Amino acid sequence: MVSIIRFSDVERFRNTGRWVLVYGRRKVGKSFFVRSSVEYDRYYFVGRGGLIYEEDSVLSYETFKREVAQSLERDEAVVVDEVQRLPGEFFDLLHRLGVRGRLVAVSSTLWLARELIGKHSPVLGLFSDFRMGLIDEVDILLNLRDKIGDKKKLVEYSIFLREPWLVPVWESAGDFFRALPGTVRLTVPSLIGEIFTEEERMYTRVYDGILKAVADGRQVSTEIASQLYSHRLIPAQDPSLVHPYLKILADIGLLEKVKIYGKNKYYYRHASPVIDYYYYLDAKYGVSERDIQEAQALKVLAERIPLYAEQFVARLLSRKMGLWPEKIVEKDYEVDIALTDFQKLVAVVEVKWKENIPRSELRNIEEKLSRFPCKRIVFVPDREDLPREPERVEVWDVESVISTDTQK
């Protein structure tokens, strides 16, 4: 069994306070991370019906409250998983108790995190907040590099295995990419339903329409509004009608907002390629309503992977270099990735996700990137695939990025 070590999250967690709120979207591995990486004396799980479990025991709420208070007063470490399911008066109890012992509260909702750190919260200032997303790009590469020799395949598997729930599928499937469409079709709708349930929101046709539109290439609010209006999901072709929905989808971790460099304009994309893949299949082939055809699904996957690789590399380089990932979009050209330090352009990056790059294409990359007086990078799976060494452009590949982290 492959156990994914989240090196960056372990390091971040070392810098938290005595009381920590661990929160994030459903199925990003919060509970596994806490159980495997955090030392604790007591671990409580709160079920949807309000029942509280400790190992094989079921506790009443009153017993649970008493045990938590006593453990913290003895300076023990306590974990409360799915803390958002407890009544509000539990947080009043914590306020009266004050910061004693070690308390790790785990929540699948972002609204609770905002409530706890909001100015009217009874535990304002008592918790450090620790948001968890998908597995860090560098971390997943480091975990898998000894198991997958081909660097192109290493990234392509890593793109999807940032979703921890897919790791067992990858381990057991004879052909992961053939198993992926059916797995995604069954799991993603349930995952989306769980996310909205935990966020106490109804999953409406407008949300569904937005997620499909973004997967289908409508990535700015005007285009999204146009598609929703054409499907009679909003009463007017007005971007202001979709902005509140887009904000919620970004807040709960389903969409991410990317700035277009030099402009007061943003575009949206799915934070998870796995979820994007499902909604793209649904937009094109209606897979939510009928069986998926393997040939179609594999063809779509082959088309989408270069886009997912670009997204993966943007985040990878952003974190490695400590810069913001943006995109350059002009009338006659685009640049895949712009890495910025506030308003300063530090690097421009073109991602070429294929094994054979013609000389003419490499020359076009050189000409396009030469417009920018900053670091210029072409990112490829393996630098050996280039027909020649480019001029005035650095070549980065998978090995050059992960080799700097061999100490982990």
UniProtKB/TrEMBL annotation:
<dbReference type="InterPro" id="IPR027417">
    <property type="entry name" value="P-loop_NTPase"/>
</dbReference>
<protein>
    <submittedName>
        <fullName>ATPase</fullName>
    </submittedName>
</protein>
